[in-house]
Amino acid sequence: MGRHLTLAELEEGLAESGESPADNGTLEMIVSRPGEDERLVVEKAELDADVGLLGDNWLERGSKLSDDGSADPEAQIAIMNSRIIHLLTGDRTLWPLAGDQLYIDFDVSSENLPSGQIIRIGTALLEITELAHTGCAKFTERFGHDAIRFVNSAEGRQLRRRGLFARVVQPGSVQLGDVVRKVD
After folding, report:
1. What sign does the CA torsion over 114, 135, 18, 86 have?
2. Over pLDDT 70: what percentage of the chain?
3. Which of 60, 118, 123, 180 has the fewest CB atoms within 10 Å of its CB?
């Protein structure tokens, strides 16, 4: 990947990137992960309540955190703010390296999207889960130690700079440019 940004550069860039909308955001990128370290950027996708994003390996991959190794329904769909990933990479073609499936220009902070909040993207409804999305060794390797410190600082966690997890509660289709909005 290129040069990793320093913490000071990330903080400076954050001020320049502006704030994402608290409602009526936009779906900026959809990424399927068909196999380990494989990424497929798609223009549209189907979200299913049982398997998550069709064509993604979430269900088959399972989770190291579950007792039996099965997939964690709390981590069915990984979502990241598009302004933050762009700040980290500076290059849209590198966004999929973060490992998330949906990249949205939307305020993903815990204040705007508390656990249990439902959001609509396209015809699908997703529920924000409690599971913290904090990044992994691959995220640190790809974006740097300062990046992981930036996303996992106290402020970074509250703002969910690393992103959040959701589960599909109403199956449906999503495509680039779809509006992202909270459902009452």
Report:
1. negative
2. 99
3. 60
